[in-house]
Amino acid sequence: MLNAFEIAGRTAVITGGARGIGRSIGEAFLKAGASIILLDRDHRQGEETLRAMEEMHPGRSRFIALDVTDEADVRRVADDICRENVPDILVNNAGIVSNTPFADLTHAQWQDVVNVNLGGTFLCMQAFGGHMVKARKGSIVNISSICGDVAAVPQSQTAYDASKAGVNQLTRSLAAEWARHGVRVNAVAPGYVATDMTLAGRKNQMCYKTWIRMTPMARFAEPEEIANAVVFLASDAASFITGTILMADGGYTAI
């Protein structure tokens, strides 16, 4: 039934929600009638995004500054939010990349990427997911990447690729563990998206031409297209879907 796609009246928490894909996910949830809580370590950008959200859909958005790698802060924020109301949806979107050849990659750079992309997802899933399990409800959508399944070329980003592969397996593992508790866990794995994160690559002719050539649809995704996939997985239309890594990649991983 078409009303299974509706999420009006629900609450979604979105990490990395101040810009890029995270911001588009927030906008998509608002358009679908949900309320949102944006989490991001960039306080200035977060407040700016909040103002824009409030102009479009007054009274249904909040912003909380949060570094997803800070375990104590993640637990505090999760407990504060869940004390008021356990959110229906959690989207783990916060992520960074380091385009450094592996031989030159420092341990500190490796840790930075893995701590945000995989560690932050782990901390938020544990902090918010624990409350969801107790409430016996919830849909968690992790933002992974095609790079969790295939190696990125021609750029070097080993830490990013490894972290996203970890997100994929974390998604599957928790989906199996929490299914009996009424909590679904899925992931969306975008291909190349027209955001700030890919801007440098889009300006590099070798990267740009390779990415377009390897994508059968021969274009970049718009952030809104990734957001739509997230809203679907969060909705009751996906009520029997858990442990799935949904590729939103223009056919990149099909060839």
UniProtKB/TrEMBL annotation:
The keyword tRNA processing does not apply. One of its GO terms (biological process) is carbohydrate metabolic process. SUPFAM superfamilies: NAD(P)-binding Rossmann-fold domains (SSF51735). One of its GO terms (molecular function) is oxidoreductase activity, acting on the CH-OH group of donors, NAD or NADP as acceptor. Coiled coil: none annotated. Residues 10-191 form the Ketoreductase domain. Keywords: Oxidoreductase. Belongs to the short-chain dehydrogenases/reductases (SDR) family. NCBIfam families: PRK07231.1, PRK12826.1-2. This is NAD(P)-dependent dehydrogenase (Short-subunit alcohol dehydrogenase family). It comes from Gellertiella hungarica.
